[in-house]
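# nightly structure sweep
# worker-07 picked up a monomer target from the shared queue
# config: single-sequence mode, recycle default, output format = structure tokens
# input follows
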Amino acid sequence: MDFRSLEIFYWASQLESFSKAAERMNTTQPAVSQRIAALEAELHCRLFERSSRSISLTEKGRVLVDYAERFLRLRSSMLDAMASPSAVSGLVRLGVSETIVQTWLARFMERVHATYPNIIIDITVDITPVMRAALLKGELDLAFLLGPMPEADLANVKLCDYPLRFVAAPALDVGTEPLSNRDLLKHPIITYPKSTYPYTYLREVLSIPDLGAPRIFSNSSVSTIVRMTLDRIGMSVIPPAVVAEELAAGKLKVVETELDLPPLSFSASYPMALGGGLAALLATLALEVAREGMAPGIQEP
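# output follows
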């Protein structure tokens, strides 16, 4: 019995799937099946009940999970104390909000490569609700998203806040500033998807009984939101940090309003299983990068 087999067994039990465990461990499903079969042969007992669609732990399997987790936690603590960063290796499936992609993700990746050269990162760019579900299903190991996540089995490291502002092309006649809530209803508002905080907040505060609901154009692509704003389709609600170059070049401007918008607050979230492992290391590194050289429009939490 070795740590690799115990780790594969542990993740198969947590994810309730040999195929998901294989993805998590960067191996193949046949390799996972062989490791589990070898463990069962060595321990002279069945660890999983198998069906055509799912697996579940046997009574002996539940006993082994407890021991496996303790072994793996101790091994992780030992490596943290003894190993050099260059000796740390593995695959991390990282989910990232596009706002982070547009600001400091490149610096984070450079830092990871310099500090942990043997860590492989598989990046997925998506919206917070999708990444939250993927974390809970074990399909992501770490995510930089709107947070913190409320689930008790997810750890959260607060990274940074992005102030939100109304932004428009200078050629768009928005009226006399600062704009009132009624003034804001005269133009379409372009922002993040319906399932995210900016959309739901704007929908709530700008719904005026005698005027109706605001016209909000939602989009999951930040670059598309910026393009639509440049094309004068409407005003956008986004962090100025995302359009710093366009603001500096005079292609866009911040529109003063009477409405104060709460900031976007981003966290690094990951499952707390086994103390977080590589995800915990990278979350700490992300915090360092997020706080270094803060660009205009980004605030330290």
